[in-house]
Amino acid sequence: MARRLDDDALTTLVGLSALPAVTVIVAARAPLPAALRGQPRLELAPLPPADAVRLLDAGAPHLTAGVRASILHRAQGNPAALLELAAPDVPSGSLLSAFAAALGSLTERERTMLLHLAAAGRPVDPALLPVTGVPDPDPALAPAPAPAQAQAQAQAQAQAPASLVRHTPEGLAFVHPLAAEAVLRTATAGTLRRAHQRLAATVAAYPEWQALHLAAADPHPGETIAARLEAAASVFRDRGDRYRAADAMRQAADLSPDPTSAARRLTRAIADARDLRDATWAADLHARVWNLTGDPDVLAEATRPAATALLYADRQHQAYGMIMAAHRAGPATDPAAALILAMIATGVADSTGDDDHRQGLTALLAAAEPVPEPSIAAYVRELIDPGAHPGRDLCDTAVVPAPDTELDPRTWHRLTELGMIAWFEDHSELAARLLLRAIGDTPPPLPAPTFHTLPALTGTLIDIGDWARADVFADERWAAGWPMMRANLAAVRAQLLALRGHGDDALRLARTTWQGLDVHGNRAAHIRLLRAAALAAAAGGGHDDAYRYLRSMFDRDGRPLHPHLSPRCVAEFTVAAVRGGHHDAAGLVVEQVRRTAGAEPSARMRILLRLSDALLGDSEADFRAAVTDPAAPRWPYEHAYANLQYGLWLRRNRSPREARTLLARAAADFTRLGAPGPAAIAEREIAVGAQPATAARHAVATHLTTQERQVAELAAQGLSNRAIADRLLISARTVNTHLTRVYRKAGLEGRHQLWSAFS
User: How far are the Cα atoms of 36, 143, 701, 742 from residue 758, in angstroms, in the given order?
Assistant: First the structure.
């Protein structure tokens, strides 16, 4: 570290770096020591927002939400600034103390100029920094500097100390956030107020900045300044500066003499904090609204953005509690406001899969009567009672707008609602068309207000076989920095990796995602990760692991932990269960899934349940029904999977010739999709089935190691794993591992088929 070396040592290092084959790396922080100036340097990029939040929360966990938001904004991802701005004093040896020491050698004029620059809080054209040593102007009346005066100011500021400030395209700026902080901490409250008064006079041509300085110069309640701050917030919002928009609205609320106006302004600040991706600040501002009013309409309006922020920040249970508190405060005058709260709560329930959350939706929906938007009501009812299929009729009449049609906000919302309903109802192709039309081709700058749209879209694209486009929409950049979205999209990427045969990568991504996941708060992501892990395990021959992953999608009684995601894995679960001899557990789960699907299940669930019944009952009629259902090709992977399972059954039970037809079809479909694992299984079964029994056993044996063949032959004779282990002087666990590999290589369902293959 450069700060631990004196100038002579640094000069020596610089000299060494000029020698052949010598590389010297010195870590230094601004301001750079004189000996290092002019040397090649690599500047480290600021921390990404999520990492900055983690560092600040770890280093200063007790900050208030507003102070925390301010530090995150001022530090701009600089690690030292994040930690030292949060410190109540100036620690000895800190970077802040170094900047404070540098101020001691400056002239009074330089220090005053730096105070104005620090008070401005942004890069400033030097011409707008007030000239020192003149009487304080009236900030409401003083004109901007004359051109000659401005030129003189610019020349003066050009002489500012190079160790503390730099010139940027936006204007004069501090070299480091802590340099500005050092200046501010040396100023008295009165001196700082006067600096804001002077700045308010010089930036009269920029009303948004003037409003901030006027508020800082005269912080007493006043509607006039509050209104100017509200107007300033609108300007900042249009520029995409969400922090300043939120903070201006927060200040406007603080200055509002009327509690109703203050609550309204805080509500707008909450929405800005949500779009800033600061759920902690949004929740804190929301709590302040409750201290100002008990008006149900105001509370409902404030709760919408606050609960949304919490939902996307993976704080689903807190979001749900906030919504229910607003509901208990009384019915909103406008049913549409109550309906939107019900819609947000539905997003929470869809994420958590919590039965209490789903049951609470009934009261929230009743508060919205008469329901103004049937599509939103159907979306909510899909979580209340999915087996009743409340959105099925809407799917039958849904129309996707033409590509060249401009979408107004109401049409956009309806598209996303219908897209989610179509996803719930297994109208997968319709869901993909609706959601693709609503989302477009590029990531939005801010998260969409309709929940789970992206995970639903990516899952739907996988279901209909459009894996290339699923790759595009599962990219992490679409998560827009929200943990909930990031976890779900990571789970989808893990599924794609597993389907494509990259099992180790899929498991690695799944485990990494699980480490930071609140399973009870984001059960949807958990279920997606379980499927990815199960696919990867099964492809590697770990059928017992696959069974455990898939069984975790259902509770002890076999009920789905997620009303839509869990049931769609019922056939994969049944295959793993039957292969491992867990017939009773499979039967329990299949029966509960059948209840969830309702009296008239979707075509997809009808097919998956028939395939599950076939596997459990050894029923060719059910196999044939699952494979020949006219709707089956709509889900190409699942259709190929059904063909594979039926082909395996036929080869072992009745007709190798018919089996070859089904297996060839499955192999071709899996290959076209890009799923090499199941394609290889189908092709191996075709090769084995085409040979006489003796040749088939030989073909299998050639793919086994010597010990795998020994284990298989002893197991075929009826010996237990422990007996085989004792015979071969290996562990029972190793025996189980060998048998798992034998099943995979030989295409066997389990131990019961070893006799025919190895006797």
Answer: 76, 98, 9, 11
